[in-house]
Write a structure and sequence with these properties.
- The complex is a heterodimer of chains A (about 90) and B (about 550).
- Chain A is mostly helical.
- Chain A has a single domain, classed as Non-ribosomal Peptide Synthetase Peptidyl Carrier Protein, Chain A (Orthogonal Bundle).
- Chain A contains four helices and no strands.
- Chain A starts with a helix and ends with a helix.
- Chain B is α/β, with parallel strands linked by helices.
- In chain B, strands 1-8-6-4-5-19-18-20-21-17 form a ten-stranded mixed sheet, with helices on both faces.
- Chain B contains 16 helices and 21 strands.
- The longest helix of chain B is centred in the first third of the chain and has 17 residues.
- Chain B has two domains: about 350 residues, Peroxisomal Thiolase, Chain A, domain 1; about 160 residues, no CATH class.
- In chain B, strand 2 and strand 3 form a beta hairpin.
- Helix content of chain B is about 30%, strand content about 20%.
- The chains are: A mainly alpha (about 90), B alpha/beta (about 550).
Chain lengths: ~90, ~550
């Protein structure tokens, strides 16, 4: 799981252009969206949906599912490990 | 007064305005369901596949020429006259050519290049002005045309609005989860997204005394988000407020009504805030889909037809109110004896626009400016950095706006240059009017790469939202809390005279951050911006532009 969490952090930094952010700067339990944590927005959420499909073969039909899955890196990694098809 | 001379609508429902009006009155629509490479379904109003061929002109150019030819013949004007100015309203023009490797010259993707080809077809000697202001382009172009006639820049303005659909646009909206698989349902409680459509529409304006009067127009930015509408309907509300509407005199508000959750809700709030909650409202998106660059012209022309025939259109797809305000949505056709209406649009980049039209008699007195031109020095800046140098400029002069790194090259360039310009300019609620040649070509190419390979087809939402050049005006407005006019024009080449004339017109309505902001296909950056006080003369602006454009 630790390996997946580190990989996920690197992927998120790359795909969302989080310049100046390093994997160790991201608290795995902190919220990804809103003022705390990484402060991501709605377009970032859509980009994470693409990341899930492209890298892990998980297709979310309803963007609202993302609200639960993208709560934190830990929640996201847990969901990926249980549902990944690649 | 600026009046309409003639018009045309060229859509899957017909090749003239009259054919389209009859089709709408007969309850027809051309919406059909299609599928994308990933199997997802979408519904759109498209021309038949067999029509989609190039004959020297691309399909996009054919539609523009076909629509304008009919309107020009009806207006009985000479398009070769130097007193005629062409305005082209489009968001993506020939963007589909990016998917064809080496078949077409890449220059044809440039909006200014395609507009020049259309203009040359009619033998017009003036450089055409492309208004590419996202989904409000069609109203922005009409407002610019109206003001150009009022300012004496031209006697006649030919405004062509057009967009054709392609995998580029459809996959982009699909990855934003904005498309409905079925026919859209504007303002309905079960609405779940928009339908795309394609059409060309033309409206020709001139000075006159009788017929359809373009009374007034307004553009306002939400300064809130580049793709999400304001939760308070701020920009649309301000536009409606600026039009000084007497609700007893208008037959209806022809709204944007895209059928997305957020747009329709936003419009209902803006209409309510503007005190127009009792005024009949309809959306044409359930018939034509969202025709993007054509929408503002097409929906204006059809609304004129409706008023002339004493009709208020119904909103196809609407059954039960699904927005928070009790707006007066017309589910079915109604009758009216009123002779004025309002057209409202909003778009990505946080832009909003509204126009008021009246038949034969104005509903208000025209506002005349008595202000003397402001003269004096205009703050200016010119930078041509590399991508790396631009990041360094950001770190040195801004540094506290991490959103910068999420932006595309054009937005980064516009944001940093504006920041440097504002350090030497007086504080004001600036409008933002930018020009370039490449539109959003660098981002278009980057987005195309995400859908080029069928086996690796993952359209990127973060890239797609930047495939509109006017997003940079939205980013500048958000950063600086500017809530007035934003507009983006594309030219075939930088031209200080054309730019100065348009900037001076915009500056009549407020101070402007304006000038050239371009990132070309080879990654060359150039920004040459000026901070123009209100009521600055064209000559003063042109002088300054000539210094920084060289």
């Amino acid at each position: 799981m630790e390996e997946l969490i580190l990989k996920l952090k690197k992927e998120i930094i790359e795909v969302l252009n989080l310049e100046d952010v390093k994997p160790e700067d991201i608290d795995s339990n902190a919220p990804l969206f809103g003022a705390e944590g990484l402060g991501l927005d709605s377009i970032d959420a859509l980009e994470l949906i693409v990341l899930m499909e492209k890298n892990y073969g998980i297709k979310l039909q309803d963007p609202n599912q993302g609200k639960e899955i993208f709560k934190s890196i830990n929640v996201m990694a847990d969901y990926i490990s249980k549902n990944r098809t690649k | 007064m600026v009046i309409k001379l003639a018009d045309n609508i060229y859509s899957p429902l017909g090749a003239t305005t009259w054919e389209n009006y009859q089709a709408v009155m007969a309850g027809k629509c051309a919406l059909q369901q299609y599928s994308l490479p990933d199997g997802s379904l979408y519904t759109a109003s498209l021309f038949p596949e067999e029509r989609r061929h190039d004959d020297g002109y691309t399909f996009f150019e054919q539609l523009c020429i076909g629509s304008a030819s009919d309107a020009i013949a009806r207006a009985d004007i000479d398009p070769k006259s130097p007193r005629v100015q062409f305005f082209l309203s489009t968001t993506k023009g020939n963007v589909h050519l990016l998917s064809r490797r080496a078949e077409e010259p890449k220059s044809r993707v440039l909006l200014g290049s395609s507009a020049s080809i259309i203009c040359r077809h009619f033998g017009n000697p003036n450089p055409p002005i492309v208004v590419s202001n996202a989904c409000i382009s069609g109203l922005s172009a009409q407002i610019v045309a109206m003001r150009s006639i009022e300012a004496g820049l031209c006697d006649t303005a030919v405004v062509i609005g057009c967009d054709v659909q392609s995998e580029f646009i459809i996959s982009g909206f699909q990855c934003l989860h904005a498309l409905s698989p079925d026919e859209c349902r504007p303002f309905d409680k079960d609405r779940c997204g928009l339908n795309l459509g394609e059409a060309a529409a033309t409206i020709i304006y001139s000075n006159g005394t009788e017929g359809w009067i373009a009374e007034s127009g307004a553009m306002c930015n939400d300064a809130n988000h580049i793709s999400g509408p304001s939760r308070t309907g701020e920009g649309s509300f301000r536009c409606l407020q600026a039009l000084d509407i007497d609700k007893e005199k208008i037959a209806f508000v022809s709204v944007h009504g895209t059928s997305t959750l957020y747009n329709d809700e936003m419009e209902s709030i803006a209409i309510d805030r503007a005190g127009l909650v009792d005024v009949p409202v309809f959306s044409l998106k359930g018939i034509y889909g969202h025709t993007m660059g054509a929408a503002g012209v097409l929906e204006t022309v059809l609304s004129m037809q409706a008023v002339e025939h004493g009709v208020i259109f119904g909103t196809r797809g609407y059954h039960e109110l699904g927005v928070s305000r009790q707006v007066n949505i017309c589910a079915d056709k109604r009758i009216t004896d009123k002779r004025s209406f309002v057209k409202l649009l909003s778009g990505f980049g946080g832009c909003n626009a509204a126009m008021k039209f009246s038949y034969n008699t104005r509903t208000d007195q025209p506002k005349t400016s008595t202000s003397k031109p402001t003269e004096g020095t205009i703050p200016s800046i010119r930078i041509a950095p590399t991508a790396e140098e631009l990041v360094e400029l950001y770190r040195t002069h801004i540094g506290d706006y991490p959103k910068f790194f999420k932006m595309d090259p054009l937005c980064r360039l516009g944001l940093v240059t504006t920041e440097l310009l504002l350090k030497q300019s007086p504080k004001a609620d600036y409008g933002v009017l930018l020009f370039n040649r490449s539109s959003s070509l660098a981002d278009d190419t980057a987005f195309q790469a995400t859908i080029q390979d069928r086996g690796n087809w993952f359209p990127s939402p973060a890239l797609f939202v930047y495939t509109l050049p006017n997003i940079v005006t939205g980013e500048i407005s958000i950063r600086n809390h500017f809530q007035t006019e934003t507009n983006f024009m594309v030219l075939d080449a930088p031209c200080a005279e054309v730019m100065a004339a348009q900037i001076a017109i915009a500056a009549e309505h407020g101070p402007q951050i304006s000038g050239w902001c371009d990132v070309d296909a080879d990654g060359n950056y150039l920004a040459a911006l000026i901070a123009v006080p209100q009521h600055t003369s064209k000559e003063t602006i042109e002088q300054e532009l000539n210094k920084i454009l060289k």
